[in-house]
Structure formats: structure tokens, C-alpha cells
Specification:
The chain is α/β, with parallel strands linked by helices. Helices cover about 30% and strands about 25% of the residues. The chain is built from eight helices and twelve strands. It has a six-stranded mixed sheet with strand order 5-8-9-3-10-11, sandwiched between helices. The longest helix is centred in the first third of the chain and has 17 residues. It starts with a helix and ends with a strand.
Length: about 270
């Protein structure tokens, strides 16, 4: 076991040297990651999802797609315990350590600098088993030189996104929940994030409208298709899109607003 851990650390060390953004490996995942069974969730008389059952694969990258308001972020909030399903259950594996970046990204202290926020006032940062210089780590997210001293209150939405990613990715989780991580990212940071996720040993679940991002990374797709239906598909976004067109026929090419099933009361 000690030899195995040494090999694991050596592999992590090499990947950290090669990658611009390195996601440290968290605890080893067991066979059971996150499972949902018979989930139903509604708001008012609108049913967002009904009878949703899924099992996240260890080491998989799951893309979550669908129109705004379909329930994608609500699913993340149920996984993290911020909300409860109306029916059904969500089980989290005993070995799972969650890291979650939500879409709002509004919990940053506006009076702190970018460097102070990410480094938490420390000169060095631990990435898994490796201790790295905090300023060098912050620079990997395209905050170099004087930019690290900018106050959070003064930065753009894309910069806030990079700050949140930097804070979350250093935590060493083995299951990442990323809600629209590519929003407002510059090309270099987007490429670095893609490469980091490709080399990541844990499970990642990513809400995104960026089909090219999901084409390159996703091993599975969870699609919120409307009418309270969620489809689980093995493959990337292009594979899912072909399957959707095959299932829906001519209707697949017709734009439509999202529809919800409605609760009926006796």
C-alpha cells in the first residue's frame, strides 16, 4: 500500500509540473460515488424533475445540459444538501469529498485582494501532498504581477470566476461540481482548465452550455430535456445530440421554450 501511494504521488508530481492548472487528487474514490433514485422536485405547481435515477461513475466527467430554469443548478443544490428532493433520495459515497463552485460566485470579500483571497494570507499553498508558492499558484490563473493586488470589488465577472476556480481546485476534492465554469474565461485559462480536467483522477460533474467544452471532456451526459424528463446518456455532447435527433425526429430542430409538467391536486 505504501508503494502504491508513492507511485500515486509521483504521478501527481509529474502532472503538476506539466500542467498550467493542476487539480490535486483527493482521497481515493470507492465504487459508489453519488446515486440518485426516484428523485422528484417541484417549485410551486411546476415539476422540474420526476423519477430521476442516476449513478455517477468513478473517474467520469458528466456534462449536465439543458435550458435555463430546467433544474440543473437545483440538482447540485440537492447533492450538496442545500435543498431536499420532494420524493426519492440522493446517496453520497463514504469516500466522497465534494468541491462545489456555484454560479453566483458572490461570496467573496470585496475588501481583499485577489492574492489574499486565494492564498488566505499564506505564503505557500498545499496542492494535495505538494507545497507550492502561493504567488506562483495565483499566476497560473492568469493573475500575474500587480494584477494579484487588485481588490475583489474592482474585478470583472470573468476574473471572479477564475478566483473561485483557484480557491476550489486547491481543496483536493475527489468529486467536483462545476456550475458554468467556462463563463467569461479567457482562452488560455479555458484551455488550461480543460487539460487539468482531462488529467484529473476524480469525478467531475459540469453544468455547461459550451458544447465544444463538453465534446472534448464529457464521458456521460445528463440532459434536462423539458417536460420534467432527464435523460442519462453515455458519450460526449455530439453523441448525445445525434441520439436526441434520432429519438425526436423533425421536432429536434424546432426551437421551443422549456415546458414543465404541473402538479395535479385532487
Amino acid at each position: 500500500m505504501n508503494q502504491y501511494e508513492q507511485l500515486l504521488n509521483q504521478d501527481s508530481n509529474e502532472r503538476m509540473k506539466k500542467l498550467e492548472i493542476f487539480i490535486p487528487p483527493g482521497p481515493r474514490l470507492g465504487k459508489m460515488v453519488i446515486e440518485g433514485e426516484g428523485i422528484r422536485k417541484s417549485y410551486g405547481d411546476r415539476i422540474l424533475v420526476e423519477d430521476l435515477t442516476f449513478s455517477l461513475p468513478p473517474g467520469g466527467i458528466v456534462g449536465i445540459v439543458g435550458p435555463n430554469g430546467a433544474g440543473k443548478t437545483t440538482l447540485f443544490r440537492m447533492i450538496t444538501g442545500q435543498e431536499e428532493p420532494d420524493e426519492g433520495s440522493i446517496r453520497i459515497g463514504e469516500t466522497v469529498k465534494l468541491c462545489y463552485v456555484d454560479q453566483s460566485r458572490d461570496n467573496l470579500d470585496p475588501n481583499k485582494t485577489i492574492y489574499e483571497t486565494i492564498s488566505e494570507g499564506q505564503e505557500t499553498i498545499w496542492l494535495g501532498t505538494q507545497e507550492v508558492n502561493a504567488r506562483a499558484y495565483v499566476a497560473k490563473f492568469n493573475f500575474s504581477g500587480s494584477a494579484q493586488q487588485n481588490k475583489v470589488s474592482e474585478i470583472s465577472g470573468g476574473q471572479r470566476n477564475r478566483v473561485h476556480l483557484a480557491m476550489m481546485l486547491k481543496e483536493g476534492g475527489n468529486v467536483l461540481l462545476l456550475d458554468e465554469p467556462t463563463n467569461d474565461l479567457d482562452v488560455n485559462t479555458l484551455r488550461a482548465l480543460e487539460e487539468a480536467l482531462e488529467s484529473y483522477g476524480g469525478c467531475a460533474v459540469i453544468i455547461s452550455h459550451d458544447r465544444w467544452f463538453l465534446d472534448r471532456l464529457a464521458t456521460h451526459i445528463m440532459a434536462f430535456e423539458g417536460d420534467s424528463k432527464v435523460v442519462w446518456f453515455e458519450g460526449n455532447y455530439s453523441d448525445y445530440e445525434q441520439d436526441y435527433k434520432k429519438r425526436m425526429g423533425a421536432a429536434a430542430d424546432q426551437p421551443h421554450r422549456i415546458r414543465y409538467r404541473h402538479l395535479t391536486r385532487d
